[in-house]
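Homework help board

Subject: predicted structure for assignment chain

Our instructor gave us this sequence and asked us to write out the predicted structure in token form, then describe one feature. I got the tokens but I'm not sure how to describe them. Can anyone check?
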Amino acid sequence: MKLQDLKTIEQINHFLSGAQPVMFQINSIKEERYNWLRHELVRFDYPNLKRRDKGIFIRYLMKVSSYSRQQITRLIKQYRDTGYIRHHHVTAAGFKTKYQDKDIRLLANMDKTHDYPCGHTLKKLCERAFRAFGDSDYQQLSQLSVSHLYNLRKSTSYKRVVTHFEKTQYKRADIGTRKKPQPKGKPGYIRIDTVHQGDQDKRKGVYHINAVDEVTQFEVICSVEKISEHFLIPVLTYS
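My token output:
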């Protein structure tokens, strides 16, 4: 059975419950989908349906069109008010771009030449290029605000000219805490003592490590060449 074979609200109800198999395909073109919605509203005489039947019919339109209930309700209102369901093409308002690609490239080259100064300094450099040195290419950039300058730095045109890398900033991360443990009866709080044996003949001596659990008193004693994971993990694994 196909959609056009559905003649009554009862058949639609069976279709929605899954009792009546129906072959249909959702149309991807919005205008044609709107035309189908209007055709069904006319075919079933929607304004004269009973309240219960209208609810079933709306669920039918939602299932086939894949629209939300709010969207279907809006389209039905448009049909009742005008007799039609029209697709309004929305076009975005076109705004003229003040700063063109050539301006952004000039800004990027100025930034690169002066080793990426702060926004206020870069603005002054662009103003000086036009007003002090008479370079007409910088006329537009001489009016650039500092806040919008940072927006242009994020643009694709700017990044095509400049790729700026910053070194990774060093951040200290403590791997242990030097204070008296407060285990509260729970194991896992360890006291660690390290003793460097000393150097001999310009060769580094080993480190003696004594680790004791504060609660269980489980003790590990070992000697390693250096205090690091590379030397400690193998020793602890076989301890």
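Reply (TA_rk): Your tokens look well-formed. For the description, you could write something like this. The mean pLDDT is 84. That's the kind of observation they're looking for.
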